[in-house]
Amino acid sequence: MADALSMTNNDSPETVIDMSRSTSHLLVASSVNKHARRRAERKYRRLLVLSDVLAVSVGVFAAQFIRFQIFHVADPTPVLYFASVFSVGLIVIWLLILALHGAWRPDLCGKGPGEFRRITNASFVTFATVAVFGLLAQQQIARGYLGIALPLGFSLLLVGRLALRRWLAARRRRGAHCRDVVVIGDEVSAKSLCASLSRDPSSGYRVIGVCLPAIHRTSDSVTTELGRIPVLGDENTVEAAVSLSGADTVAVSAMEVLGHRGVKRLAWSLEKLDVDMIVVPAVTDIAVPLLRIEPVDHLPLVHVGRPIRSPRTRFAKRVFDLTFCAVALVLLAPVMVCVAVAIKLDSRGPVLFRQVRVGRGGTEFRIAKFRTMTHGADKHLESARTAAGQNDQVFYKSAADARITRIGRVLRRTSLDELPQFFNVLGGTMSIVGPRPLVPGEGGSVEHFLERRGLMKPGITGLWQVSGRSDLDDDDRIRFDHLYVDNWSLTGDIFIVWRTVRAVLAKEGAY
Known about the structure:
Blueprint: H1 2-6, H2 21-70, H3 76-100, H4 114-136, H5 143-173, E1 179-184, H6 187-199, E2 205-211, E3 221-224, E4 227-233, H7 238-245, E5 249-252, H8 255-272, E6 276-279, E7 291-296, E8 299-304, H9 311-346, E9 352-358, E10 364-370, H10 381-388, H11 406-414, H12 421-427, E11 431-433, H13 449-453, E12 459-461, H14 474-486, H15 490-506
Parallel strand pairs: 1-2, 1-5, 2-4, 5-6, 11-12
Antiparallel strand pairs: 3-4, 7-8, 9-10
Helix pairs in contact: 2-3, 2-5, 3-4, 4-5, 9-11, 9-12
């Protein structure tokens, strides 16, 4: 196999590094399993179709039963006959529009928001079509029937997709249903892409090899977060590497390695091999809604939009904060009373811990939390950092901090110590979602960090809290704060709140 790679069209033996015997066995296994992976993808697509058929059918016929059986009419027989025929037609139309919207496309299923966006669009188009048909045909369609069928069927569609996505993600984390990827680029960009794919194994991409230009190659493998990845060749032998490895996808991590013409030629050659190609853009950590493709002279330009932080969006965020906060305080008031009593019985000192933090625009405010440490513990912060060996880190967090009380450990694991911050939200110094409020001076050594995160109010929860919490290293915390500030949206806030509930229940990274 290594000989075949090194003897590909017009390539001298020096342009390709021979692979070891273990690497050859890996690639042979990948080639054998390629057809099995394609069968698995077809099976998953059939499960998606079956799930959608059941969801739409149950939603529509349940709406018919509720409207015409429970809330029956005087003479139900002709009405039920017409309703049954109409229900079958509605199911067929709904499924056809789902298909036309690409709801079952293999490249969209199981990852990203595109799958749910297509389902949402198809569902609303379906009922817009039915409404227009009823108007043109001058047919009376029971509004109560449609009012039940749309939300119920749509909800069941989402539940079915979420359940299948979670099942698929679990399978991918165990190594099944994965697409084998060959990465081409320089060593730095290839390692970066491998790291991103390793942090999200549920995406279903598994790197089996890299192709590096000869000038960037120092050995027959590269060390990444995935372990040691074999080097299969260079930018001139990608097609041969893909053919012999059985890879499903080629990921170009650095465009400059191939150039525009080289990328085009590679796409043509991979098309013949039925292999997908991914090109990593030069811009990173930018939300998809802010990116727009603008063709100029047949050249696709990526337009990067500015984050939306207008007075109107700030007002919408404030309304969301006040509404959520009011409901949460009413529901959690008994819990907060119980926590206060437990703190008072566990150790001496006040129930609440108040500390100066940095808010929007660098203004300082006093944050309120349930006390989880011994009284006066903030005076011994430096000794605690030294004991934990974290003097050189930007942020301090230790699960073995001796200052934490018994009830404090429980409160931190369950995040109940954060509940008094709802009063900070009511006062306007904090938001439900935002960057975590920092102590004055914290993060000052990181370039642009404080000024960028100062554009938003600090939040009770945020992006890094739902992405690993205290288990994240400093670089990831900084990256997630920048991600949130640069890509803020109200929809994103709602999604983070939903993920916060899951993170709190899982109790991962909380100490």
